[in-house]
Design goal:
The chain contains five helices and no strands. By secondary structure, it is mainly α. The model has no long low-confidence stretch (mean pLDDT about 85).
Length: about 100
């Protein structure tokens, strides 16, 4: 949802740029976007958080990428570890029945 929001944010910005400054400004902005394409996911995550990317919506997109690629897997790992530890610390079945 966050990543989709960044697409909406970018389209609104480009529409406003077109209305306020004209087609030449929009073409210049799109040329800047083409020049600042990132090659891999690591660069995307780093540059979006540090503000080194040209698109206006890059920070929002980077937040979505962080949630999708880092936060969600980390949460899944922590939940799995908690279940493993809880299972390992549980008393044996015979002791629970008594």
């Amino acid at each position: 949802m966050i990543i989709f929001g960044s697409f909406v944010q970018e389209s609104i910005y480009q529409h406003q740029l077109l209305l306020q400054h004209g087609l030449a400004a929009l073409d210049a902005y799109k040329a800047l976007l083409q020049a600042s394409v990132v090659d891999n996911l690591g660069d995307l995550l780093t540059k979006s958080v540090s503000g080194q990317m040209a698109p206006v919506s890059a920070r929002t997109f980077g937040l979505g990428a962080w949630v999708f690629c880092v936060v969600a897997p980390a949460a899944a790992i922590l939940v799995t570890l908690r279940r493993v530890v809880r299972f390992a610390m549980a008393p044996p079945r015979a002791a629970r029945a008594a």
